[in-house]
Write a structure and sequence with these properties.
single chain, Rossmann fold, ten-stranded antiparallel sheet, six-stranded parallel sheet, 18 helices, 26% helix, disordered N terminus, binds CIS-heme D hydroxychlorin gamma-spirolactone 17R, 18S
Length: 723
Amino acid sequence: MPIKKKSPDTSKVENTKTQDLARDIESSQNENLNTNQGVKINDDQNSLKAGNRGGTLMEDFILREKITHFDHERIPERVVHARGAGAHGTFQLYKSLAKYTKANFLTDTSMETPVFVRFSTVAGSRGSTDLARDVRGFAVKFYTQEGNFDLVGNNMPVFFIQDAIKFPDLIHAVKPEPHNEIPQAASAHDTFWDFISLMPESAHMIMWVMSDRAIPRSLRMMEGFGVHTFRLINKKGESHFVKFHWKPLLGVHSVAWDEAQNISGKDPDFHRRDLWEAIENGAFPEWELGVQIIPEADEHKYPFDLLDPTKLIPEEMVPVQRVGKLTLNRNPDNFFAETEQVAFHIGNVVPGIDFTNDPLLQGRLFSYTDTQLIRLGGPNFHEIPINRPVVPVHNNQRDGFMRQQINSGRTSYHPNSLGGGCPFQAGMMKGGFTSYAEKIDASKVRERSESFRDHFSQATLFYNSQSQPEKNHIVNALSFELGKVQTVAIRQRMLGILSLIDKDLAGQVGFKLGLAVPKPERPINKSIPADAPVEQYESKIVKPPLDKSAALSMAGTVKDTIKTRTIAVLAADGVNDVTLYTMKKALLNEGAMVHIIAPHLGNITGATKEQIPVDQSLLTAASVLYDAVYVPGGKGSVASLQNDADAIHFLNEAYKHCKAIAADADAGAVLEKTYFGKNLADKKAMTDGVLMMSDIKKLSREFISAIASHRFWEREAERKVPA
Ligand code: HDE
C-alpha cells in the first residue's frame, strides 16, 4: 500500500514550496502499521521467540528492521551552528531593485517567494542551551523561480577573522577544550581568549559578542546581516556592491546576562519555544530586507576595505534601503526532515547576485557543500525535500548514495546527439547564470592586503555608539569571560587589546580582574607567516570613520509595541478578578500573552467567586521566562502571596532584571515584602517601571507603555538586589 500523503497545514499559508513539500508528507491517521516494505504488522509488542520464554529468532525481520533503522537514526551534527530552530515563510518585495539586479525575486514586486529560515547558535552542540552568549546564525533559503538563493548570515554584521584559512583555528579555540570537552556552549575559557588575544583583527567582533546582541530576548527580535559585501548584477551586466540586512519589526531586544544564565537552566529551549509558539499563535515574526548599495566606482572611497569582513558600513555613510518583507508563518512538520536536513550554501546564488573577493566569503564557497557531503551522507542532499528548488532540475549528474531522481534516457553527457542535445545550455538571454567578468591582473600571493590592517577603529566606533547601560554590560561581559580564564597572561594580553579600543573600557575590566592595564604590545597578528615582514601583520591605528553610529546601539530600537511579550500575573485564591480581567484584556488587546501564575495549578477562586484557570504554578514558572509582572489585589490573594517565598523571589528577580512591574494599590503589601519594597514610599523610584495605583485603566495604560520600553536598565546602578 503506498504511503498516504497528507498536505501540510495550508490553512495559514499556501505557496509553491508548501505544495512541493506536500509530495513527501506522510500521515499515519487511520492507517495500519507497516514494515518499510509495506507489509502490515500484526504485533509490534513482542519479538519472535522459540517459545514464550525462549531465545529470539534471527528470522524476525520485523524486529531486525525496526532496530536497524533505530541504530542509524542519528547523523553528525553541524560542526558549527549545531543548535538551531527553523520555520517556513515568505518574502514579499515592495521596492524593485531592477536598477541594480536582474534577480527576479528582487525585481518583481508582485512575486511572493517561499523561504525556509534557520536560526542557530554557533559553538554549542545540538542539545545545548539557546541562551548561550554567542553569535546567532540567520540563514535564509529563498526558493525563487530561478533556483535557490541562500543568504547565510548572522545576527552580527562582522566576523572574527579576515581569512577563511583561520576558521578551523577560531572554532577549535571556542569549542569545548579537547582534553576534557569543557565548557559546553561557552566562550568563557582559556583557549578562546588565548586565540582572540593573539588576533587583533577580532577586536571589532569581540565588541559585538560581548554586547547584549549575543543574548537576544527572542530570535524574532534580532537583526540579521549577510556580513560580506556581495555584488548585484543588472540586466546590462553592471555591478554594484551590496550589504544585506534584516531589520526585525519588533525591534532588537536582549535579556540580562544573569537572566540568560537562569533561563539556560529553567528552559534551555527558550528561543525555540518562543519562535514556535509565536508562529502557532499567528503572531508571525517579520523582518524587512535592507540593502546598502555602493556603486562599483566607489569601491575605494571608504576608509576601510569593502572586502574586509571585520568592517561594517556605517548606516550614516550608506543608508539602508528597506525593500521587502520576510514573514515566518508556518512551523516545520518534522524537525529532523526540515530543520536538521536543511543544507545552506553561500554559493547558492541566482542570476543577478554574485560574489566579491572577500577572502572569508571565498573560503566559505568551498566549505558548505563539503560539510553537507559528510553530514548528509552523499552528493544527493539537494534532492531532500527541504533542499530541492521549486523549479525543475535537469542535468547530467548521476547516481551516488540515496539518489531519488530516476533519470530516463541513454545520455548523461553533453554534448550528445542521441538525446537530441538535451538538456541544453540555457544561454544568458534565457536566464542562464554568468559570472561577473571582474578584471583581474595579479600575482599569486599568500598575503594580507594593507587595507585590512585597521583592526580597532570600528571596535572603538561600536563601543562609543553604545548607551551607558550597554557599555556597562560590555564591561561586565568581558570581566565575566576573562574572569573564567585561568591563565593570567591571557587576561593581561586581552587588556592590552582592549586598551587599543578604549582606555576606560580596559581600565574598568582591569579593575575587575585585579590587573593593571599593560602598555599595549605592538598589536600584531600572532599567526604571522614564518617569513613575512612583521609590519604587514601589525595593526594600523586609525581614527574611527565617525564618532558614533546610532544604528549600532539597541537603545533607540522599536519601543512602541508589546506584541508577543509574555506577562506573568501573580494571583492566589481571593484575587480581585475584576482588576485581573481588566488588565488581562488590555494586555491581550495589545497582542501580548498573559499567564496566570498561582501557588497551585487547577483553578483559583476570585473575590466574586469566579473560577479562574491557572496557567502555571509558582513551582513551574520562573520570572526569567516573562517580560513583566502584574500583581492584582484582593484580600485573600495578597495575604497568601506576601507570605509565599516563591512569589517574592519572582518579583525580586523581575526587578533585578529591570522588568516592568505593576500592582493594584491594595497589593502593596506583597511588594513591601520584596527587596525593592523599600522604594515604595519614594515616588521617584516608583517611576522606573514599578507602577502601583488603584485606577486599573490608568495602571494598564502605563504598564503597557512600561513593557514596550523593554527594560529599565538604570536600576542596575543598584547592584545589590539579592535575587
Ligand atoms: Fe558558516 N559554516 N562558515 N559562517 N555558517 C556553517 O555549514 C564556514 C561564517 C553560518 O543553519 C557550516 O551547513 C567557514 C560567517 C550559518 O544550517 C560550515 C567560515 C557567517 C550557518 C561553515 C564560516 C556564517 C553556518 C556548518 C569562514 C555569517 C548555519 C554546517 C570562512 C555570514 C547554517 C553547515 C544552518 C554553517 C563554514 C564563517 C554563517 C562548516 C569555513 C562569516 C548561519 O560549512
